[in-house]
């Protein structure tokens, strides 16, 4: 907590005064252009990766960047997706997986999660991801397959399906490599498609390099 308190002090002393006009605007305006769905992993920071300003990204973070298919029960992920698309009107959704993902590694290695039953239950949402890869013992392959599976799940959400039908939104699958900073954008088949910088989520964002 000491580090967090010091960081807060620096923000209030150094950062906020220099951006006071931006925050004054954001106090009454909330118009993000992109819904960014990433893993909860502390090493993956969407705003840092994209060079985005506060207010530009609506972020959902879940273990393994998993997006359950649409259902009838209460679901915080579904509610956030619906709000971003139907209320805020985002024009793009990015699902971003990453290298060395703990969730995907646990699945590949068949780790015993009996002491973490909630985690085990949550990771069942990756069953479709495992079915998509023909290399079951390859973590990078599962990471990529998982991104594609979550894009497919997104399409089951009514707000997303409607926006896609009306050509008001685009979906993107990214894989972020922690060690190099590279980002691959995947096509529907799971191979590397156009470089991520050519489909940047913000015209003002820092370019994202792709392998």
Describe the 3D structure:
Strands 2-1-3-4-5 form a five-stranded mixed beta sheet, with helices on one face. Helices cover 41% and strands 14% of the residues. Helix 4 (76-87) runs parallel beside helix 9. The chain is α/β, with parallel strands linked by helices and 211 residues long. Mean pLDDT is 90; it is low at 197-211. It has helices spanning 2-18, 20-26, 46-50, 76-87, 102-109, 117-123, 127-132, 139-154, 158-165, and strands spanning 34-39, 57-62, 92-98, 170-176, 183-186.
- Mean of pLDDT: 90
**Share of helix among residues?**
40-55%
The number of distinct β-strands equals 5
Structural class: alpha/beta
H/E series? HHEHEHEHHHHHEE
Describe the sheet with the most strands.
5 strands, mixed
Shape: globular
Quaternary organization? single chain
Q: Point out poorly predicted stretches.
A: 197-211
Count every helix, treating DSSP H or I runs of 4 or more residues as helices: 9
| Alpha-carbon distance between the two ends | 38 Å
Quote the beta fraction.
5-15%
CA gyration radius, whole angstroms: 18 Å
């Amino acid at each position: 907590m000491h580090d967090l308190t010091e960081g807060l002090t620096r923000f209030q002393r150094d950062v906020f005064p220099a951006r006071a006009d931006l925050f004054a605007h954001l106090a009454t305006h909330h118009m993000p252009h992109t819904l960014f769905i990433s893993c909860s992993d502390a090493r993956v920071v969407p705003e840092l990766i994209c060079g985005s300003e506060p207010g530009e990204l609506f972020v959902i973070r879940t273990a393994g960047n998993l997006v359950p298919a649409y259902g009838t029960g209460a679901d915080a992920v579904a509610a956030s997706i619906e709000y971003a698309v139907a209320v805020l009107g985002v024009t793009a959704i990015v699902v971003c997986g990453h290298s060395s993902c703990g969730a995907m590694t646990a699945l590949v290695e068949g780790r015993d999660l009996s002491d973490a039953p909630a985690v085990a239950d949550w990771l069942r949402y990756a069953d479709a991801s495992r079915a998509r890869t023909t290399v079951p013992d390859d973590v990078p392959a599962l990471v990529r397959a998982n991104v594609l599976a979550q894009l497919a799940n997104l399409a089951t959400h009514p707000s997303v399906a409607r926006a896609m039908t009306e050509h008001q939104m685009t979906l993107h699958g990214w894989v972020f490599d922690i060690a190099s900073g590279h980002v691959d954008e995947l096509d529907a088949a799971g191979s590397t498609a156009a470089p991520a910088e050519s489909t940047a989520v913000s015209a003002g964002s820092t370019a994202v390099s792709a392998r």
